[in-house]
Amino acid sequence: MITRRSLALATAGVAIASTARAQGTWPEKPIRLIVGYPAGGPTDFGGRLLQDPLGRAWGQPIVIENRPGASQVIASEAVARSPADGYTIFLAASTHASNAAVYARLPYDTLADFTPIVNIYASPTVLFVGKDSPYQTVAQLVEAAKRDPGMAFASSGNGSSGHFALEIFRRKAGIEVTHVAFRGGAPALQEVVAGRVPATFSTLSGAIGLARDGSLRALAIGGPNRVEVLPAIPTMAEAGFEIPDTSPWYGFIGPKGLPRTIVERISRDVIAQLRDTTIARRILDTGGVIIAEGPDAFDARIRRELAENAVVAREAGIRVE
């Protein structure tokens, strides 16, 4: 006799078996890689770099879907609402760990609705001035800012990584500044190049061309170590203003409940690709730093940054409506 309980158990058994088969044979169809920023930027770069190598490793094409808007909130929501079957992956930037601190409401829970998979690489934040700036060191810039409270600093937008770096630096240096938020990194950098705004904190990957041609002068690296493409530039700590690492990162994240076997497969295969000298060289040449951080360490990083960003945003009054 078939009872309601036996039918429920049988249905559950079929579901478990189907999940097990899916995990064991993944991937069996193309994989959608959602990017929360337009094509051509530092986030998109990581996806394009790994698209073909991972496609060959997995025997399935990877289709990149750029869904820009609202500091990748639009893309994040799309991923949060996707099935946890490994066929939708989010190439997230580190604003994923700061949006909760600056937005009054989000259509998802940053921790509960996602599965961290692998942190791929980072692009150090760099303190830049224009080529004709009188400031040769961080100390000189700070001294000038103390003489002239309210000195303008540009950023790529309210709540951006550069904005957070500025607020952290401002408190460390004991200066008062005027934050000038632009709609993107390019216009912010151009204002500094033109000398209309004295300084900015920018991702190195977004400014590497201007740094190489001499349009921008780098004063210090916001990460913990010097970088290969600017070996003579000191870290903020070496310059006498030690601050937490403000380098934006770029990593793969899945919807909540993504099976651990798929998480580990993706993480393992991505890290293997990062050992390829051609891929590694392309990251380093654009000013990037290879992270290759697995799911557990990546999850810990996101949780730590969520807490840190909440404190900075609250103390600095950073809000995005």
From TrEMBL:
Region forming the signal peptide: 1-22
Arranged from A to Z, the UniProt key words for this protein are: Signal
Q: Which domain of life is it from?
A: Bacteria
Q: Which InterPro entries does UniProt cross-reference here?
A: BUG, Bug_dom1
Q: Which Pfam families match?
A: TctC
Q: Which family does it belong to?
A: Belongs to the UPF0065 (bug) family.
Q: What is this protein called?
A: Tripartite tricarboxylate transporter substrate binding protein
Instruction: List the top taxonomic levels of the source.
Output: Bacteria, Pseudomonadati, Pseudomonadota, Alphaproteobacteria, Acetobacterales
